[in-house]
Amino acid sequence: MKIEPWVWTELLAFDSNAADCGVADYLATLGFVPQVACLLFSSPDMFLLHDNLDTEKPLSPLFCSRNAHPGNENRQRQVWTNFQLRKLIHNLKDAGCACYLSCFTVYYGNRYHQEWMSMHPEARVVYCFNHRGMEINAMQVLDDGTLVEDIIIPQVVKTCLDYGFAGWHGPDGWGPLSSGNLMNVDFSDGIMQQFLAGRDWQLPACITEPCRNIVTQEEVVAARTAGKPIPDYGLKQLQERGAWIWENHRLDWIQFNVQRWLQFWGKMTSALHEAGLKNAINSAWTKGNFDALYEYGIDYRKMAALGIDAMVVEAVALGMSQTRPDTKWYHDEFASALAEIKAAAPDFKLLFLHGIKDVVENWDNLRHATPGYERELFKLSNLYYRDRSGLRRCADGLLACLADGIAKHEWDFIRDRWKASFDGEPVSAGEATVLWHDAMLDEGLADFIADGFLPGQKQFAALLRAGLQLQTVARFENADCEPGAVFVPAAHLVPAEELDRLVRNHPAPVMLCGRAAVLQRFFCTGEVISDGRMAFIIAKGGETSRSITLPTPQTPYIPSVGELYFSQDRNRQAVAPELWEQAVPAARKAIHRAKKASQILFAEVNDSRCSLITRSMGNGVFDVAIENRAEWGRRTPTVTLSKPFEKLEVISSFPLRESQRSECSFTLTIPPRGISVVRVFEKTKEQGLENEFLNEISIDKLNPVYKKEG
C-alpha cells in the first residue's frame, strides 16, 4: 500500500541562516520525507520577472512569505536570496524530496517591488460586476497582440530549470480564473476577440463597441477609503456583454473556456515535459464534474488527457466552515466530488488538499477542530474506485496544506492519523457503488439549463448527507465488476438501452435517481419514492408494491444571475427534503437483505445524527467509522453488526476504548463533529489477525523516515 504525501509550504518552514537552509530540522520535525514539496510564492513575478542566477540578490518579501506576512509559529519572515533558494531546493532534492514551483496569480500594486502586471495592466482579470481585478488572466492577450500564456510558459520552464525545481504547481487562478465564474469573467476586449473569432453572429453594440476604460480595484479601494462614491465606468457594458452571451450563447461560452484552458495547459504540459519537468493543477474551486464545467469551463476528463501529472482536488470543507460559518459545511459535497472526478478520469493521479492550517487565511483545523480534522481525513481517504483490476483509493495521496509552523509532536499525531486512514488494501467499502456515465456530463449541461434540475453529484451528496454509505465509484461499463448494490445518479441521462441492461442483469440491488418523467418505465416493477419531478427508484431488489408520493415543492426555480462566488450555491430546482430521508432507509433495507442472503458482514447505527463509513479488509477484518453529524456535542451510539465478533480495537485517536459491548454490538463515544474508528474481528476467524493490518504499512514504507544526522 502506498500513498504520496506532498506538502505545500512557504519558505517560513526553512531557515535562510542555517548552513543547509534548515532542511535537516524541517524533515526531522516532519518525521518523513515528502515526495514533493510545493514551495508557495505569492506572486507570479517569481517567474515573470526571473532573468537568470548570474548574481546573488535578495528575493521580494512576497516570495519569502505569502502576502509578505510577518511570520509563523516558529520564526519571523526572513530575507532570502536567489542563491539561497536554489541551495534549499538542491538540499531537499538530495534528501529525496522534489520541489515544485507554486505561485498564486495576485498583483500587489507595486507594494514590495515593481511588478510585471503594473507594466501590463491589460493582463489582469476583468470582473464585470466588480472591476479590473488584482490577478493575472493567463488567457488574455496583451495590447501588442502577444498571448499572455506565451510569456508565462517559457518563463515557468526557465525558472524551474535555473533553480532546480522538478515541476510547476498551478493552484487557484491558473485554471479556472481567480474568484469568478463564467457569468462574471472575463468579457474584456481581449477575450472577446478570441471568443468571437470565426463566428458569424449578429452582435449587439455592447460587444462590437470597444470597452477600453474599466474601473480598477485600486480606484474602488481608494474611493471607499476616502468615503467617496465608488466609480463603475465600463461595468455596465461588460455586464451587458455577459448577459447577452449567457442568454444566447451559453454553451458556446462554456466550450470556449474549456478549449482555452486546454490550450494553456496543453502548451504548459508539453513545454514542461520536453524539459524533463512535471506539473500539477488544482481542481476548479472545490467543484465536481458538472459544476467545474458549467461554472468555470474545466472538463477534468480532457485535462487528464493532456498528460498533466497530477491534480490536487480542493476538498477543504472544514477549513471553509471556519472562515465562512454562515455557509453550510460542504463535507459530503466535497467527498462526492472527489469520488466522481475519479470515476470520470480514472487514470488521473489525484491528491486531495489536506487542510491542516493556514496563518494567512486564519483557520487551523489541527488545533481548533481536531475531531473534524480527523473525520475529514478519514472520509476523503476512504473513497474507492473499482474497475477490472480491482479496488483502489480515489486519492493517490494528499497535499498537506499548509505544512509550516507545526511542532514535531503534532506531526507525530498527523502521521498516526494518516496511517489509520490509509491503512491496508480493502476489498470492499460502503453499502453501494455509485456508477458514472460520461453522458451525465455530456448531456448534463443542456439538462440543467432547461429547468435547473439537480445534477447527479448533488444527488450523490444528498444521499451521503442522509446517511447512505456511498464510498465506492465505478464507470458504467465496469458495473459487472461490482458484485454488490449499485446506485445510478442522473439515471435519466444514461442511454436507455444501457440502463435497462443494467437493471435486468445486475445480480444485486439497483437504485436509480433522476427525472421521474423519464424513469417512469421502472415504476411498475420497482420501489418508488418521488416528489413528481425527482424520483428515487429501487429498480431491483426493493419492495415492488411500495410507492411513496411526496408533495411537489412549490418553491419556484429562479436561475442565478450575476456574480457567484465559489462558496455560494447556484439556485437549482427544489427537491422535497423528505425524498432523501425516505430513500436512505428503503435503500439500506434492500442492500442489507441482499448482504444477509450472501453472508456478507454489515453494520448499522442506532443514532440518526451519526453515519457510518465502513471498509472490509478481508480475512474477517472489518473497519467501522462512526461520524458525528450533530451540530455540537458528543454522541454515544450503538453499532450493531450482522455477525458476531471476536474482538475489536479502536484505531482512531478517541475514545480509548468502547463503552459497552455484546456479541454483535458495541457502544462508542464520538467527539463533537468528529469520528471514531473501530477495527472488528469476526468471531469465526483465528486469533492473531488483529496485528496483521495495522502493522501492514507504516510511514516508513510510505516514504523513508527522516532522521537528522548527528
Explain the overall architecture.
The chain has 710 residues and is an alpha/beta fold. The protein has 25 helices and 30 strands. The strands form six sheets. The chain has a nine-stranded mixed β-sheet, with helices on both faces. Strands 1-2-3-6-7-8-9-14 form an eight-stranded parallel beta barrel, surrounded by five helices. About 3% of the residues have low confidence.
| Poorly predicted parts | 687-704
What Rg do the Cα atoms give? Answer: 26 Å
Label the structural class. Answer: alpha/beta
Let me know the number of strands. 30
Q: Average pLDDT, to the nearest integer?
A: 95
Helix coverage percent: 25-40%
Q: Count of helices?
A: 25
**The biggest beta sheet, please?**
9 strands, mixed
Q: Strand-residue fraction?
A: 15-25%
Overall spatial form: globular
Span between termini? 32 Å
- Sequence of strands across the biggest β-sheet: 13-12-17-16-18-19-21-20-22
